[in-house]
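Design a sequence for this backbone.
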């Protein structure tokens, strides 16, 4: 495997994403369009939201969708559209923070563990495997109960859930790459361990990271929604789709569908965006497919 610097590797990856890839390119394009839509909505929330998301009695209680309130109002008379817009900022902040932290921790630990080997690798692998053995949602619930509510505690909970995924993936690739001829040649000319890891090995594991990151982001959106639905996520004063879905669920028995439908729809759409992007990217970057 040839040694590539990180910028050249990323450029090579992006060059493979083109409409000529057919369905895979379409998946990436649609997924990216959905993700960017939510990102712009989150950034422009103060401009796009017609009301304060926590302001009560801006309309009647449980007003059905109408020209003034396109998504209706909830049990406190709050505008659901405003809460959806501001909720996108909350969901994306928690999702992106947890993905950045989990990927950074998992990748660094995987690189070091796979390269160093020995007892350090054995102990760290056993610890990560023990975390990975827990169903993600159950582990997130347990951590959320211990850490409490709030953006930081929830972010930490999600980070711990996804670190083992990156660790296992990167460690497996490092074990294979460190035996390659170009790594052995670098050792022969006196390259130190740090240089070998970050200059020769790391650039060659980069293609796997964005695929796993986007797929984990989709799962993180669902896990965050589940925590909020169970009352273990964010405080009530922070607009959040999962919390609003929980509040709207109780109104379904009275045939009041809009308080729960629109937050649920946003969760599905954002999850779909990350999933399409990740799956399409995985197909495009699959070496077997590139030979067809």
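Sequence:
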């Amino acid at each position: 495997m040839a040694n590539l610097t990180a910028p050249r590797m990323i450029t090579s990856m992006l060059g493979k994403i083109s409409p000529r890839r057919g369905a895979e390119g379409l998946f990436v394009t649609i997924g990216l369009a959905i993700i960017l839509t939510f990102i712009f909505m989150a950034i422009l929330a103060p401009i796009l939201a017609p009301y304060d998301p926590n302001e009560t009695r801006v309309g009647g209680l449980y007003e059905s969708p109408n020209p003034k309130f396109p998504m209706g109002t909830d049990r406190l008379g709050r505008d659901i559209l405003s809460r959806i817009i501001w909720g996108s900022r909350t969901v994306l902040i928690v999702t992106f923070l947890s993905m950045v932290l989990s990927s950074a921790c998992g990748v660094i630990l995987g690189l070091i563990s796979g390269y160093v080997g020995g007892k350090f690798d054995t102990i760290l692998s056993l610890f990560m495997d023990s975390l990975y053995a827990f169903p993600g949602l159950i582990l997130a619930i347990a951590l959320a109960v211990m850490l409490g509510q709030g953006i930081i505690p929830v972010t930490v909970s999600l980070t711990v859930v996804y670190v083992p995924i990156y660790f296992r993936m990167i460690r497996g690739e490092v074990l294979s790459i460190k035996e390659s001829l170009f790594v052995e040649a670098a050792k022969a000319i006196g390259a130190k361990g740090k240089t070998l890891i970050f200059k020769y090995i790391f650039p060659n594991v980069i293609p796997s990271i964005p695929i796993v990151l986007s797929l984990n982001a989709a799962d993180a959106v669902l896990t965050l929604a589940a925590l909020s639905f169970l009352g273990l996520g964010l405080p009530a004063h922070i607009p959040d789709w999962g919390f609003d879905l929980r509040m709207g669920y109780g109104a379904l028995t009275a045939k009041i569908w809009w308080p729960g439908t629109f937050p649920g729809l946003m969760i599905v759409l954002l999850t779909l965006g990350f999933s399409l992007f990740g799956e399409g990217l995985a197909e495009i970057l699959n070496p077997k497919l590139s030979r067809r």
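The domain at 23-290 is CATH 1.10.3720.10 (MetI-like fold).
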